[in-house]
Design brief:
Helix 2 links the parallel strand 4 and strand 5. The strands form 3 sheets. The protein has a 5-stranded mixed sheet, with helices on both faces. A 5-stranded mixed sheet has the order 8-7-6-11-12, sandwiched between helices. Helices cover 42% and strands 19% of the residues. The chain has 2 domains: 159 residues, ATPase, nucleotide binding domain (Nucleotidyltransferase, domain 5, 2-Layer Sandwich); 166 residues, Nucleotidyltransferase, domain 5, CATH 3.30.420. It has 344 residues and is an alpha/beta fold. The structure holds adenosine monophosphate and magnesium ion.
Length: 344
């Protein structure tokens, strides 16, 4: 249930996202309804995301994106009431581009600046889009893999990766086989292809180490073993399938334990890897076996997007949480549980 504050007309809130590969601006209207973002993503010619190159990409694209958003026929710039931006966590050089654009816009429009926590924004857009009040969140992105639940006014991390994010793992495995960034979608296609050509396929001979340690996860060992399987002659599409089965099962196991411990019934997926159909269906099966439900927002709201930053920025604005210029420095290591959740 929205509190009185949240149902107030906030005016248009802009949201600027620039934590990693994507520079994106979105907005929400006075009632909190998001519009699709205007985005540009860096696609490295070789290798992974280089923070400096990604930041240069954001600088090169930000001017045109700002122009496109400000000239939108859907609102008048005079109706903009705040400019929100991803303050962290993320890659320092990339975050600084978004923060600079946000400061300049807020000053020009003479409206408050609202620094927001990128991970919390994934949760809030998902809650809003899926009508999910108090879920356990499985947040699976490039740099992050966390299982999160709300407790005593903060989103608490119940379990997380101890090394690399699941998306980075998929991207690195892909890159080793000349598949460009982002590797996750191509791995998904190859895995499907293997299953189509080998109905009833078995994981015999394709076993990988198990990535669960208590409530935590780890993905670098699983990736090294997958690379060795291919080196040893296993077909690439078979290993892609096994890699998904093992790494997704580990995430689903931790998410299930989080549901059991918290007594909650709703699971909510977020982050770019939540675009994956196999992961979605594994989560749906697990949740329904427990008499619960698994939600996933539309793909445009799973990947990094400015609309989710605007969504969280609006909530903070309505609760009086704005960011002074002197406090608007970026926070590369900002944690999910550092942000007060005042709106539920
Ligand atoms: P994010 O960091 O949340 O923007 O998400 C980016 C990550 O999502 C990258 O690591 C992508 O490889 C991954 N990703 C995107 N689509 C898929 C998919 N269909 N299956 C698996 N991973 C995906
Ligand atoms: Mg993200």
């Amino acid at each position: 249930m929205a509190s009185t504050l949240e149902s107030q007309d906030s005016g248009i809130v802009l949201g600027i996202e620039s934590t990693a590969h994507t520079f994106s601006i979105g907005w929400v209207d006075g009632s909190g309804e998001p519009s699709p973002s205007v985005s540009a993503s860096v696609t490295p010619k070789e290798g992974g995301i280089h923070p400096r190159e990604a930041a240069d990409h954001h600088v090169d694209n930000s001017g045109e994106i700002v122009q496109r958003v400000l000239s939108s026929p859907e609102f008048d710039t005079a109706d903009i009431s705040a400019v929100a931006f991803s303050q962290g966590p993320g890659l320092g050089p990339c975050l600084r581009v978004g923060a600079s654009v946000a400061r300049a816009l807020a000053q020009r429009l003479e409206v408050p600046l609202v620094g927001v926590n990128h991970c919390v924004a994934h949760i809030e857009i998902g809650r809003q889009q899926c009508g999910s009040n108090d879920p356990v969140l499985l947040y699976v992105s490039g740099g992050n893999t966390q299982v999160i639940s709300r407790l005593s006014g903060r989103y608490r991390v119940l379990g997380e990766t101890l090394d690399i994010g699941i998306g980075n793992m998929l991207d690195k495995f892909a890159r080793n086989h000349d598949i460009p960034f982002p590797g996750g979608p191509r791995i998904e296609t190859l895995a499907e292809q293997w299953l189509q050509n080998n109905p009833g396929a078995s994981l015999d001979g394709l076993e990988l180490p198990y990535a669960v340690q208590g409530m935590d996860l780890a993905f670098s060992g699983i990736m090294t073993s997958a690379l060795k399987l291919v080196d040893g002659g296993a077909p690439l599409d078979a290993v892609c399938w096994s890699l998904q089965e093992h790494s997704f099962a580990a995430c689903v196991e931790v998410a299930e334990r989080a549901l059991a411990h918290t007594g909650k019934r709703e699971l909510l997926l977020g982050g770019g890897v939540a675009c994956n159909e196999r992961l979605r269906s594994m989560c749906a099966s697990m949740a329904s076996e427990r008499g619960g439900v698994s939600h996933v927002p539309a793909r445009g709201y799973c990947i990094d997007n400015g609309s989710m930053i605007a969504t969280l920025g609006r909530l903070q604005l309505l609760h009086g949480v704005t960011t002074s210029l002197s406090a608007s420095g970026v926070r590369q290591d900002l944690r999910t549980d550092e942000t007060d959740i005042l709106w539920v």
